[in-house]
Known about the structure:
By secondary structure, this protein is an alpha/beta fold. It contains 19 helices and 14 strands.
Amino acid sequence: MRLTKLGLLVAGMGVAFAAQAVEVEVLHYWTSGGEAKSVAELKKMMEAKGYTWKDFAVAGGGGENAMTALKTRVVSGNPPAAAQIKGPSIQEWGAEGVLASIDDVAKKGGWDKLLPPVVSSVVKYKGQYVAAPVNVHRVNWLWVNPELLKKANAKVPTTWDEFFVTAAALQKIGVQPVAYGGQPWQDSTVFETVALGVGGADFYKKAFVQLDQGTLSGPTMIKALETYKKIKPFTDKNSSGREWNLATSMVINGKAGMQFMGDWAKGEFMAAGKVPGKDFLCVAAPGTANAYTFNIDSFAMFKLKNKEAEKGQQALAATLMSPEFQELFNLNKGSIPARLGVNMSKFDMCGQKSAEDFKMASTKGTLIPSWAHGMAMKSATQGAMFDVVTQFWNDDKMSAKDAAAKIAKAAKTM
């Protein structure tokens, strides 16, 4: 009797182990409307391949909370199979020796031909693929409620001078001109867009990619900071701590005229049943029409003790890069596919414009990484920059010249 029980127990453990072997745990921070929809589709695709999806969602738009959770898990020797990581952070994790190579999957799928070099370089460590890119986001968008602009008899701004005229016109008729979320990552998202519009692509690259000290503390940076601070009177007093999607809903619901945000905001408009070109407009932020700040979402694969789980990782990597997923995912998310050659006919005018501008900027040399979204500098440097930008936004006594000096100092943080 005891032997039978023991046999059943061992058999049960075997079944449990088999179930665990095909479980793929994925850490991400896609928890809002359009994003959550995309994750649900990925889960469906993985389950159709016979894998159990274990969701490890950590809320917080900029991903800071998710990265804290990831560090805790990796340090404890229990990493998830995959985690949503961006830019230089992939290189930092690679240097720690904790990432798994998915080069076999990439070679089989011909990723080198499917990905633009600016994308593939982000997801490789020492020449080997360690992450699968799922999209390209454009960060330098301005989202506009055209009905409110019409009421204010104001035009869609293409320059900073025009922007402040439009903002004043909206304010005059009692409409909140700018929907703003006062969180560090959002402050820097708006600031980098302003800096690009004021200084241009070459200035941006010199300042935020090369971290040139003279450029960071120079007159163009001071002008960019002054322009950024001029936006503040057009935001509301309740903006502090507001999540980005709640700011987007202010534009959707006619409570605010404009929002500076990457194209993940489009997912919120679409989830609310709004039509691009009619209910909302997507335009390049003032002064930035010829440039494209990009943010690429990727899933990095971590070394696992369970060799069976590696099959799940490889299946996940192949699924993430499949044209079916890239189309479906980006239609929901508001971004464009990372892989080239995906049919864009199902995409709306904003998606098609983004794809066109991505190609245009890559030929003009104005395709530039978003530092506010972890694509241009180490996380410690980025964190120090965030602190200065947020401090400047909230401190009415700090001069733009002092803020520029602090930004230059922050750039030395490694």
